[in-house]
Each structure stands twice: as C-alpha cells, then as structure tokens.
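Retro notes - structure team

What went well: the batch runner handled both jobs without manual restarts.
What didn't: labels got mixed up in the shared folder, which is why I'm recording both outputs here explicitly, each with its sequence directly above its tokens.

Job 1
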Amino acid sequence: MVKLACVIWILPRESEQKYTDFLQKRKLYSIYSIPCNGTAGRSLLDMLGLSRTEKSLLWTVAPVDMGRRLMYLSETEMGIALPGSGIALVVPLDSVGGKTSLEMLTKGQTLDMERKTQMETTAANEFSLIVAVAQNGHTDEVMDAARSAGAAGGTVIHAKGTAGELAEKFLGVSLAAEKDMIIIVAKREERNAIMSAIMEKAGARTEARAILFSLPVDSVAGLHVSADREGQA
C-alpha cells in the first residue's frame, strides 16, 4: 500500500497563492488553507510597533515519497529556506476514514493503492510536531514555557472547542469554547523538555489549561533557517 502523509506549509499570508499554484501544477487539488498567526514575543512586537505576524497554514494529502519531493522543491524552486519564507513538513497518516474520504483527500492524484513501496527510514523522526490546545488568550504563557525549554517559535490557530458542557459535567471545570491551538516544530531530542515545560507552566492545572500531544515528522524544509529566528514558525 502507498503510505500517505499530510504535507503542511506554514507561510507568510502573501505567499499562499504562490504555493497553491505550485501544488496545483503538480496535480494536487485538495488543498486546505487556515489563517493563523506567528508567535514572536509580545515584548519584541511592542518594541517594533508590530502586530502578530499573519500566516497561512496550507495542507494537502499526498504519498510520503511525493511529500519528500515537495520538501526538496519547496527549497530549490520556491525558496522556503530563505529567512522569513516559512517552513514545510511531512506528517505520516495512520489511516483514512474510508474510500470516499481517500478520494476527496487525493482528488486528481493517480494512486495505485495496491502497489507495494519501499519506504526507507531516513531521518524520519528527527523532528516532532508538538500541538498544544489552550484556553483563548493564553498563547504567551504556552510559548514562554516552550521557549524556556529551547523552542524557537510556533504558529497559532484560533479554534473552537465543542466539549465545554461535557467537561463541566464530568470533570467539574468550565472551559471556554474559544481555543488557541499552538503548533511547534522541534527536534525530537528537545520534544520531551518542551512538552514538560508547557505542562508545568501552562498545563491543565493552570489558567491556560493546555492539553498536549505530538506527532512524528517525516521530513521538513526551511526549518534549519527558521530555528534561529524567533517566531518564524
């Protein structure tokens, strides 16, 4: 079976159309865009007189080997390795919910789903994607904790929770519907320290009430530049 992955780009908002064209040129038509924000520190933004940096998160589904090819092209053709250009990563999928979902996610692609493919285990898990879901307005607490453990930056997606009443009924806590989802790309050896710092300083027993999980990253593009620049991701 062909192994599929979610291929993700986190880009300056103005680069969204350029990357959409780049993907459609390669017959990837099921492309999803989510507006989000960078996480440059509040003190730095205040000093520069800037607001939160506007980003777009683009994602699509493709075979893992194509995802790796897209990482290479993102650097060589699209220039994502240049400062301020964003990052890209490949996150393997465990499963897809049925044939219809598969067809919608891979619209326009020619896949031989019975074909066996040899997937090498390169530096497949050199990086991890850390996801923290916190109460709205507590992004700074999460990112301050993450940076204290070595994280370079993150991306904020504003989301909405749907289990507030259940949480209040069964857990005895009242949770606001509005959420901040903070995603951080980190080296695997730094993952545990970053997650521990977030749990200690912004976890479930704090006002931020952040919950955490991480996902393995197959490959990345642009991260070697962004890791040295606060708030790049």
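Job 2
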Amino acid sequence: MYDELKNANFEIVATAQDTGGESAAGRWYDAAKATFTTLVDANHAVSSAFQFANVPTGVWIDERGRIVRPGESAWTSDRRDVYGGKELVIHGDAYVAALRDWVTNGDGSPYAMSDEEFARRVTPRSAAEMEAEAAFKLAVWFQQQGERDRATRYFERAQQLNPDDWNYHRQDWSFEPNAGRKWLEKFQRTDKEYYPLDIKPDPKKKSG
C-alpha cells in the first residue's frame, strides 16, 4: 500500500512504542524491510501525546500539522483469529479504504474529521487516567534504570487506574516469560472489543 501511495503526497512514520528501545524493536523493522520512516520511542512519548491505548494504532496528520483523525486501530486487512476459544476481530479493509479516500480528497474526504467531531471523539483524560499515565512513566523510567521491582509496582498502579489501556499491560508483560499467558487471561476477561474501529464517513460530506 505504501509504495502505491507515497507519490501521492503521503508519508508513513512508524513509531515503535517499546521501553526496550532499539534492541527490542529494531529487529521487527529489519524483518519487515520497511521502506517508510521508522522510529523507536523508548519513552512512549507518542502514546502519551495521542492517547494510544493499544498497538497498532494510527493517527492522521495533514500537511499543515492538523490532526485529521485521532488514534484508532490501524490494520491493513480484515482478519479473524481465535484465542482460547474467543474470537478477536480486526477491521483493516475499512481503515485502508478510508485512508485512500483521504489521500485522494484531502479535507474533502468524508473521513477527515471536523474540529467538532474530533472534540467529540477525543475528550480530556480523567484524573485517574492522568495518574495512570504518570505511574506508567515512572515504571518506564525505573525499568530503564534496571530497577525491575520498582518498575513493576508502578506498572501495576497504572494498570489498576486505567485497566483498558493495553499498552500499560503489554509493556510490563514484555519483560516477563509468561507474557502470552497474561495477555490471554486478560483478553478472556474483557467484555470490550480489542481492536475497535469506528470509521464511518461523515454524512454531511461527499467523497470526490
């Protein structure tokens, strides 16, 4: 997809959110033979700024630096997987179709949000969510200093305050040998869609 769109005034910037840094994330870029811009964000600055709660998440930014769509599940094709008897649904086809429309039509795309719609979608963090974010940043710092016990304490605090933020859990679990089991246990318990995507066109706008 990228090779097709990169000549249409479109650029992908992939930012791996991983406290482990280049040694943990770089090999995935190498294996993918990525031809777009690739970054490693060991401090999770991007997730903090755009309120990402899972990966992969995409945000659309136009040529003026205006955020056209907030963070949302960003897959390139539809998929259905089953983990422990529970289905995980991925909506990628609709996301790519909307992205193509925006690249072609810019502000005229029905998928480019108005300021009003953006404000409806993206609300300020609650007090608990802000404390969770602060706890997570402390956890990341302690992990980078090699103080795993303290890091774990703050990871757990962030998870308690904002249990729906999968990044808080996934980053913590990445340092443990039983990460897959912990993910599956939480996935089995959750009653919310793991990769939600609400990318319906604005009925007031028509695609060119």
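One thing worth noting from job 2: The radius of gyration is 18 Å.
We'll revisit the folder naming next retro.
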